[in-house]
Amino acid sequence: MIHALTPYPAMKDSGVPWLGQVPEHWDVVPALAAYKSRGIKNTGMVEKTVLSLSYGRIVIKPEEKLRGLVPESFETYQIVEPGNIIVRTTDLQNDKNSLRIGHAKDRGIITSAYLCLETTDRVLNEFGYQYLNAYDLLKIIYGYGSGLRQNLDFKDIRRMPVLVPSHDEQAAIVRYLDYADRRIRRTIAAKQKLIKLLQEQKQVIIHQAVTRGLDPDVKLKPSGVEWLGNVPEGWKVKRLKAEMYNLNPVRVPLSSTERGRMTTREYDYYGASGIIDKVDDYLFDDDLLLIAEDGANLVLRNLPLAVIARGKFWVNNHAHILKPIEGKLEYFAAVLEQINYLPWITGSAQPKLTRDRLMAVKIPVPPVDEQEAITEAISNTTLPLSSAIQRTQQEISLLREYRTRLIADLVTGKLDVRGVAAQLPELDAALPEEELDVEIDTDLEGDEPETEAAEALA
User: Which residue stretches, if any, does this entry annotate as coiled coil (predicted)?
Assistant: First the structure.
């Protein structure tokens, strides 16, 4: 797709180090000439549809999520119109991974902690969004901001350089990006479906092994556990507390030198469900099994629930830390990954899997030598599937990198699309929306982690 694009014939120095050379006929203007801040309060509750910035998209927030950290009145929120550009302005210093730019498709309200922008007459709306999107994807936006937590305000970006070609050229860039983006999304969606099928096949193999063993002719007996069904006659069914210790985190006071050493990756970091977390002073040097405490992760199953941690590592206090009394760590990890934890989760606003409930879960327990045989068989049988999953995930990562580079190169004038865009076929208007609606820049789903807190403080 990109091979047909060529550089512009005449370039000039933009005067901005990171932008470098730009097309000679493009203007370089301050952001205040391209964008203007809205900030229209929802006084009188004229609008009730609550919007949320969710990993680079502006989505309607379901009513069931309007709980926990929310304001007393949504009158403090600001009104958003379709086409408005939302910038998450908070906590630049501590969070350099999230996507911060969204393009509104619906009318609604969003926290006043965010910037709501519209474009001026000089800039087409979609081009204005893609330009800021490039700033976000390239992490240039983190060079702006003020205050202790590096929050953004329009005054912080009003002098930010913006490249402005003619309206016709902006439209050509937008058309090409839309065309390319649809195909990239469709390809990623197909690869994500493949990963899902491979994971399902892998789970079938694991489930069969940890609940029935390796002998297809073995005699079975009722387990008395609904999710488990029948188990081999020689196996026992026990509560987890009979097979594993549930350890309390070991709190270790850290000196400033030791805290600094954490950043050198001398230790690994583990959190609930394997999320790499910023943690303080929980230290282990062992082979342990971590289980999420967070009920949302356990129900949605977006992440692995049973994570084996080895060696020296830090772990946050939102993970249950388990160690076998006797038996194979890998076997227990495989079993605990199969369980539906929904009946064991308590709480609604902050659903959790408590220590007592986790340790009361019943699991199948074969003899130790059979546990070892099962884990070895699982490893050998699922290796081709795991390799295929990893290879497909790498392909998705390359597609995402390609998309980021393409957006950046086009909106900063590194490649000329004028001739190519005019020859593009009509867009796939009939393409099913679900084939395009993929998480293009992250494998996670749901709200950005600080969204509710920001909305509560707005």
Answer: none
Q: Which stretches in the chain have pLDDT values below 70?
A: 1-3, 64-72, 92-96, 145-150, 248-283, 295-304, 316-317, 348-350, 426-458
Cβ proximity of 318 and 293 under 8 Å: yes
Please name each of the domains of the chain with its CATH number: 2-189+395-457 (3.90.220.20), 214-365 (3.90.220.20)
* Average pLDDT in the chain: 81
8 A C-beta contact, residue 101 and residue 67: no
Q: What is the DSSP letter of 250?
A: -
**Number of residues that make up the chain:** 458
Structure tokens that stand for 302 in this block: 């977006």
- What confidence score (pLDDT) does residue 140 get? 82
Exposed / middle / buried, residue 89 (Cβ in 10 Å: 0-12, 13-18, 19+): buried
Record the tokens describing residue 315, joined without a space.
């772990």
100: tokens are: 């911060």
pLDDT confidence of residue 443: 39
Find the distance separating the first CA and the last CA of the chain, reported in whole Å: 44
CA 109, 110, 113, 119 torsion-angle sign: negative
Nearest to 338 by CA among 312, 306, 310, 315: 306
| 3 state SS of 426 | coil
164 DSSP β-pair partners:
27
CA distance 83 to 126: 8
Model confidence over 367-408: pLDDT tens digits? 999 999 999 999 999 999 999 999 999 999 999 999 999 999
Assess contact for 279 and 314: CB atoms under 8 A: yes
| Position 83, amino acid | G
d(CA 80, CA 85): 9
In angstroms, rounded to a whole number, what is the distance separating the alpha carbons of residues 291 and 275?
Answer: 11
| Sequential DSSP letters for 164-214 | E--HHHHHHHHHHHHHHHHHHHHHHHHHHHHHHHHHHHHHHHHHHHHHH-S
